[in-house]
Amino acid sequence: MVELLQAAPAAAPVSGPALVSYVLLDVCLIVALARLLGGLMQKLRQPRVVGEILAGVLLGPTLLGPASLRLAPVEARGVIASIATIALILFMFLAGVEYDLGRVRGRGRQAVTLALSAVAIPALLGFPIAALIHSPAYAGSAGAELLPFALFVGAALSVTAFPVMAHILMERGELNSPMGSLAVASTGIMSILMFSYIGFAGAVAAATGLADFAMRSGLVLCFVAGAWFVGRPLLRRLLPERPSGPPVTGDGMAVVFAGMVLFGLIGHVIGIHAMVGGFAFGLIVPDVPALRRAIADRLRDIAMIFLLPIFFATAGFSTDLKLLDGQSLMAAALLLAGAIGGKFLAALPARAFGLSWPEIGALGALFNTRGLLVLVAGLMGLQLRIITPLTFTLIVVVALVTNLMTLPLLRWFAREPAPESSRLSRVMQP
Questions:
Q1: Which residue of 76, 90, 392, 421 lies most exposed, with the fewest beta carbons within 10 A?
Q2: Alpha carbons 391 and 150: distance in angstroms, whole number
Q3: Mean pLDDT, to the nearest integer, of 33-46?
Q4: Model's pTM, two decimal places?
């Protein structure tokens, strides 16, 4: 297969029916390979998402080299990237719908403290690491100055992948457990802080100053206020509880789909990423268990089995692990040390809330799930020419390693002796 693709003539620009054929073929390969490798990872007691990431890597230049463009031409990749954005919005909406806000109501102080710590500490560690590797091999033309390069390295280290962490917690049945609730609440706030920081890094790199960052922060506050005080009451009127019949109709699902895409669009436009908008819309769905359960049941399979692997595969098209050599592996080790150590350090303030050391370790492991959201920061840096393709490949290595280590660490911390009454459980009680 690989030899046939490499021997084929160079692909000409495609459009019309040929473009449709390429997109359908690529989606079929991505979903099938992701399912196959995801199942293999589960048998190895690893998150399914690791297999989904590897599916994209295997379909990219790492295995196929330049022949990957014959399998997935540039024009087809643009269409697939758009599908992947919709997939991420849908999955994050599903996570919001299935998330029980009552678990963290009145406990915002702990979540805010941990979110600030989990973004600030890795971001600060990014500066000395960036100074050590700052060279033309890793820094693009716009990253010739240390400051923008260091900001983007810090942004990559600060990422916690909300959808991957939620995916893991869903698979383990722990999304609404005390530990899962605290992790999701912290990471929800962390996502806004993280993408605000990435936006700030982009503004500095583009030399637009702080005005753009200040405007984006104001837009985020307006978005949050509008979602809670306008969108939430409106949804209560559009999606009322129906005790005598199905809690959601076809018209209701149309409201759901239109609303999640609109919120994703707003999140994309104001610079906090479409996934945050999708999750926010899920949170403001009326707190009626039957309604939320009916919506989730309709969406779960199409989101988890069909669409989500497309999102996890897209960044693999831009990854070439053959770029790695001895020197770059040392740089990868530095990035991994900052990424992993920073997140475990960020979990330490939870000790002041009464959490045990095993519980803190589990939080640190959950904060280290990065999925492909770390590649959102990497792709932004690549597009702005702040980092090089080699640095982007190193970021993929960080994503794979941190995802692979999450479940083993969670199982290891779960075997630690715990008191009869978990202090985390007491902290999370209203």
A1: 421
A2: 12
A3: 85
A4: 0.71
Cα 314 from Cα 82, distance rounded (Å):
10
Amino acid 413: pLDDT: 83
The amino acid occupying position 371 is G
Helix/strand/coil for 139: strand
The C-alpha atoms of residue 64 and residue 62 are separated, in whole angstroms, by: 6
Residue 314 tokens, joined:
């897209």
**Pairwise CA distance, residues 325 & 155, whole Å:** 24
CA–CA distances in Å: residue 53 to residues 30, 98, 336: 10, 24, 18
Q: Give the pLDDT band (50/70/90) at residue 281.
A: very high
pLDDT, residue 208, reads 55
* Residue ranges making up the domain that contains 269: 93-307+325-428
Distance, C-alpha 188 to centroid of its chain: 11
Does 327 score more than 50 pLDDT?
yes
Strand partners, 139: 387
Band (pLDDT 50/70/90 cuts) for residue 323 is confident
CA distance 218 to 224: 10
Segment 232-244 shows an average pLDDT of 77
Label residue 422 by pLDDT band (50, 70, 90): very low
Place of tokens 């990035």: 335
Q: Which of 149, 151, 123, 147 is nearest to 136 (CA)?
A: 149
3 belongs to a structural domain: no
Whether residue 11 is contained in a domain is answered as no
Question: What does the alpha-carbon distance between residue 27 and residue 5 come to, in Å, rounded to a whole number?
Answer: 18
pLDDT at residue 153 tops 80: yes
Handedness of CA 286, 263, 233, 241 (dihedral sign): negative
Residue 383 located in a structural domain: yes
Say how far apart CA 84 and CA 74 lie, in whole Å: 15
Q: What is the CATH number of the domain that holds 334?
A: 1.20.1530.20
DSSP reduced 3-state for 210: coil
Summary mean pLDDT of the chain: 79
Among the listed residues 411, 203, 399, 422, the one whose alpha carbon sits nearest the alpha carbon of residue 316: 399
- Cβ atoms < 10 Å from Cβ of 207: 8
How many residues are there in the chain?
430
Domain contains 392: yes
pLDDT at 406 over 70: yes
16 backbone φψ class: left, alpha, beta (φ>0; ψ -120 to 50)? left
